[in-house]
Design brief:
This protein has 13 helices and eleven strands. It has 329 residues and is α/β, with parallel strands linked by helices. The strands form three sheets. The protein has a seven-stranded mixed sheet with strand order 5-2-1-6-7-11-10, with helices on both faces. The protein has a two-stranded antiparallel ribbon with strand order 3-4. Strands 8-9 form a two-stranded parallel ribbon. Helix 5 runs antiparallel to helix 6, helix 7 packs across helix 8 and helix 10 crosses helix 11.
Length: 329
């Protein structure tokens, strides 16, 4: 069986890019995990010229392609900068504008949103950056619709992410959207990180103080219970009762601990469970819906379309393992 050509990924390099973001991109797309079932990727380090690109701490990145290679890329990744107000080189900005006009997906990590804004790509569009840089982005680029609180957002095939760990979340999300949940989960396991956090989660997650440790333990137990019983009807009131809190207190503490609401958290995990079942089994759609807690195929289809922009059947066609197994693995 002929293997598909590796997906072509460009890491856009220019002076001042953050070493952390470069490392995240390289870890997600630069490691060969084909023996674990992850598709092959062709990650290229693209810069204006062949000279090493300096980074903070005495590090340097050696390009292996010039900007002329960008038209071949299916995805372009823009690291953040150590100095967010320093303009990116004009050839880089011009290359980004041409890539967006071609319809290429572009994703910026952390302060990389400033580079997209400098190119004029974010004018009139939604975007975000690290919470500490939000006001600066608004001030320097008032045409950008800066999101106040999220992990990553997309507008017109332009992705932007909040700081540091949110860059990992965005990279895994892009893998999941293109290559399936199992591929993203495998990469996450090898990186010893969470398989996914949805982009709508808050950047801030309150940390329990000593006098609220008991509440934190109760919430952890409730989440574990919910994950073990996703196929059952689960209401916020029932979960709150299990935690020993009122529904209002439960919702408030839950959001502080996870960055999202109980209902959204449940929906996220039900979709993730359905994705895994669709990829790894040939169970009929009503059974997938039942096991993932949607109750009916219609409800599952509605949530898939709303959240993923595709139907469960189309998702299975794109990402099902071969041969499927009716019992799962």
């Amino acid at each position: 069986m002929t293997q598909p050509a590796p997906a072509r990924i460009a890491l856009l390099a220019f002076p001042g890019i953050r070493a952390f973001d470069v490392s995240v991109i390289t870890e997600v797309w630069g490691a060969d995990r084909t023996d674990q079932g992850v598709p092959a990727f062709e990650l290229r380090r693209v810069a204006a010229g062949p000279e090493p690109v300096p980074m903070r701490g005495g590090l340097a990145l050696t390009p292996d392609r010039t900007l002329a290679w960008l038209p071949r890329a299916e995805l372009i990744l823009v690291p953040g900068l150590d100095d967010h107000v320093t303009p990116a080189p004009e050839p880089v900005l011009a290359a980004l504008r041409r890539a967006h006009a071609r319809g290429t997906t572009i994703a910026a990590l952390c302060g990389g949103a400033f580079t997209l804004a400098q190119a004029g790509l974010l004018d009139g569009r939604r975007a975000l950056t690290h919470w500490a840089l939000t006001d600066l982005l608004k001030t320097r680029h008032p045409q950008v619709q800066v999101e106040p609180d999220a992990l990553f957002v997309e507008d017109s095939n332009l992705w932007t992410a909040a700081g540091t760990a949110a860059g990992i979340d965005l990279c895994l999300h892009l893998v999941r959207a293109t290559h399936g949940a199992e591929a993203a989960a495998t990469i996450a396991r090898s990186m010893v990180t969470a398989p996914f956090r949805t982009g709508t989660q808050a950047q801030f997650i309150a940390h329990p103080t000593p006098h609220t440790d008991r509440d934190a333990d109760a919430l952890a137990e409730v989440r574990a219970f919910a994950l073990a019983h996703l196929d059952e009807p689960l209401t916020v009131a029932a979960l709150a009762a299990r935690s020993g809190m009122s529904p209002r207190s439960f919702a408030r503490h839950f959001a502080a601990a996870t960055g999202t609401t109980p209902l959204r958290w449940l929906l996220d995990h039900r979709i993730a469970t359905a994705q895994k079942l669709l990829e790894r089994t040939d169970l009929p759609m009503p059974e997938v819906a039942r096991r993932s807690g949607f109750g009916s195929e219609v409800t599952m289809r509605q949530h898939f379309t709303s959240r993923l922009g595709t139907s469960p059947r189309a998702y299975r066609t794109s990402f099902a393992e071969q041969p499927p197994s009716g019992q799962g693995r």
